[in-house]
């Protein structure tokens, strides 16, 4: 059976192995990077000024769209008069998800229209 001490010992051994592998492969990795930099004419200055590329998810069979933030609609954030009022004074404009208080009352057999505020 593995207990906490055994697992911690395994973690320590694996971390030591990982650092040894990293030390062995470090020099060859640096040489590989330098060779690619030379082949493509990349300088350290190029790397310092480079911005990380943003990943853009594409749709199958179509080109990926550029990453742009969606524009907010002109009416976003505009207050709307309440359309429904609950028994405890709760209100809902009728937009968005149905609030829990109304969902509960509908589940109990009441209708949404019975809580409509009559427009005068």
Automatic annotation (TrEMBL):
<dbReference type="InterPro" id="IPR027444">
    <property type="entry name" value="H-NS_C_dom"/>
</dbReference>
<keyword id="KW-0963">Cytoplasm</keyword>
<protein>
    <submittedName>
        <fullName>DNA-binding protein H-NS</fullName>
    </submittedName>
</protein>
<dbReference type="InterPro" id="IPR037150">
    <property type="entry name" value="H-NS_C_dom_sf"/>
</dbReference>
<feature type="domain" description="DNA-binding protein H-NS-like C-terminal">
    <location>
        <begin position="74"/>
        <end position="117"/>
    </location>
</feature>
<dbReference type="Pfam" id="PF00816">
    <property type="entry name" value="Histone_HNS"/>
</dbReference>
<keyword id="KW-0238">DNA-binding</keyword>
<comment type="similarity">
    <text>Belongs to the histone-like protein H-NS family.</text>
</comment>
<dbReference type="GO" id="GO:0003677">
    <property type="term" value="F:DNA binding"/>
</dbReference>
């Amino acid at each position: 059976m593995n207990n906490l001490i055994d697992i911690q010992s395994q973690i320590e051994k694996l971390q030591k192995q990982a650092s040894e592998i990293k030390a062995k492969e470090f020099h060859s990795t640096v040489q590989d990077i330098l060779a690619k930099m030379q082949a493509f004419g990349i300088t350290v200055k190029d790397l310092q000024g480079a911005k990380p590329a943003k990943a853009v998810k594409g749709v199958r069979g179509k080109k990926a769209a550029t990453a742009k933030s969606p524009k907010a609609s002109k009416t976003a954030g505009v207050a709307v008069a309440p359309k429904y009022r609950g028994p405890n004074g709760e209100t809902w404009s009728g937009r968005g998800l149905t609030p829990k208080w109304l969902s509960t009352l509908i589940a109990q057999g009441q209708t949404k229209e019975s809580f409509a505020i009559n427009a005068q």
